[in-house]
Amino acid sequence: MNTPYTVLVLCTGNSCRSQMAEVLLNHDLAGQVRALSAGTRPQPKVADGAIAALKAAGLDTEGLHPKDIDAVMSEDIDLVVTVCDNAKEACPVFPRPIPSIHLPFHDPHGEPLQSFLAVRDDIRTRLVAAVREKLGLKAAA
């Protein structure tokens, strides 16, 4: 078995979009990608709406918590994905050049569950496909 690519999803608070992206990438590209997420200014907890949206799709949310970018800087990262403009602008300098994608998503923080569900589905459609294409991964059978 090949070693999966490590993908870091980066946003500002690491409480919503990047958390949903982490879970979706780990689920939809299981065995091909190991996704991590972090924030440039992490919030105290994952947004309740993000947890509810993931659970509504039958996805595991156990152990999700916001992490500071410093917590993952020692990882051997193959691809960085920024999902908000603030994280793109504040993206740290890594010890070696790392390919990156900037793919912004609406921030549903503070909005009704329907907004989180829409963002979850948008991440699943656009981000999973973009990571698959960037890393040259095969689509699921």
UniProtKB/TrEMBL annotation:
Residue ranges annotated for the Phosphotyrosine protein phosphatase I domain, each copy included: 5-133
Which SMART domains does this entry report, sorted A to Z?
LMWPc
The record ties this protein, via Pfam families, to: LMWPc
One GO molecular-function entry: arsenate reductase (thioredoxin) activity
Q: Name the Gene3D superfamilies on file.
A: 3.40.50.2300
UniProt KW Oxidoreductase keyword: yes
User: Could you say which EC number(s) this protein's record lists?
Assistant: 1.20.4.4
UniProt keyword Oxidoreductase, yes or no: yes
Q: What are the UniProt keywords, alphabetically? A: Arsenical resistance, Oxidoreductase
| Name of the featured protein | Arsenate reductase ArsC
